[in-house]
């Protein structure tokens, strides 16, 4: 969906990603489309296995050997990322589009110093000398709040805390002033206090640097004050997309409603158990039939199980892939499905 301000900076159209396995093809991403305007912030939300990370990795040519893009387009600055050569994609990856990976301990090289790893991209994409790259790396560590950045340059990943390693990953992603920053669940392994610090840091840096952000998460609570729009994914499909305030107040998909109801509230009753979504995601080794959420959905009818709904316009900039979206009324809906 194009942005209200004109042509999107990054636009993904009908992306299809498959993985080869001994049991046959795994249908990881199934016709997903979304767009990101310059300076905008989009959250891709859904439980593990919904295709959030696989989708963005495919844009950057980072799929494992068993993965392949079967169909789709991904336009960035007028070029289709999925049609670029390896050399052309290397000039984009880490330079114009950068990524903060989920686990910094496995993403950082344990036998290379932090300074070396930060300087590598600067020398590759900016042509800086060793001295210039080291000086810029120290500035980046200071930017992301690493105490004594000069000493931090000579540290190895295992000598830093989890929060510090994540800050190093953010510094690395920002090193070449990217137009798009992809943050893949960067707060998952951190405690609540450090999570809040990382979220505040990303918000601050986006405001200062003007970059666009794609935030990948399973937690709707994290993105409430961080993004402009939310795209809810499930089983490799896009089920709902809306501005963040609209999604919270006027969700029109049972899966999104389930995610919202499972979030704890600071002013809610403390003696009640949080509701959960019964069941498990479908086996993606088989092609999807009908709505992928139908087996777990209390609103499902026979049509849902045999005919897959397409994204319908609920209101301007709000879309839902549900046959019964007109009967839903946001997170406060209390009536029983019929």
Tell me what you see in this structure.
- It is a single chain.
- The chain is α/β, with parallel strands linked by helices and 338 residues long.
- The chain has helices at residues 52-59, 86-92, 104-107, 114-126, 130-143, 149-153, 162-174, 192-209, 244-250, 254-261, 302-306, and strands spanning 10-19, 26-36, 41-45, 67-76, 79-80, 97-100, 180-184, 212-217, 229-234, 237-243, 312-315, 318-320.
- Strands 6-7-8-3-9-10-12-11 form an 8-stranded mixed sheet, with helices on both faces.
- Strand 9 and strand 10 form a beta hairpin.
- Helix 4 (114-126) packs across helix 5 (130-143) and helix 7 packs parallel to helix 8.
- It is globular, with a radius of gyration of 21 Å.
Q: What is the SS-derived class?
A: alpha/beta
Low-confidence region ranges: 1-5
Question: Kindly, what is the distance between the CA atoms of the first and last residues, rounded to a whole number of angstroms?
Answer: 32 Å
Tell me the quaternary state. single chain
In short:
This protein has helices spanning 52-59, 86-92, 104-107, 114-126, 130-143, 149-153, 162-174, 192-209, 244-250, 254-261, 302-306, and strands spanning 10-19, 26-36, 41-45, 67-76, 79-80, 97-100, 180-184, 212-217, 229-234, 237-243, 312-315, 318-320. The radius of gyration is 21 Å and the shape is globular.
Please tag this protein with its features.
single chain, four-stranded antiparallel β-sheet, disordered N terminus, 338 residues, alpha/beta, eight-stranded mixed β-sheet
Give the SSE map.
Layout: E1 10-19, E2 26-36, E3 41-45, H1 52-59, E4 67-76, E5 79-80, H2 86-92, E6 97-100, H3 104-107, H4 114-126, H5 130-143, H6 149-153, H7 162-174, E7 180-184, H8 192-209, E8 212-217, E9 229-234, E10 237-243, H9 244-250, H10 254-261, H11 302-306, E11 312-315, E12 318-320
Parallel strand pairs: 3-8, 3-9, 6-7, 7-8
Antiparallel strand pairs: 1-2, 1-4, 4-5, 9-10, 10-12, 11-12
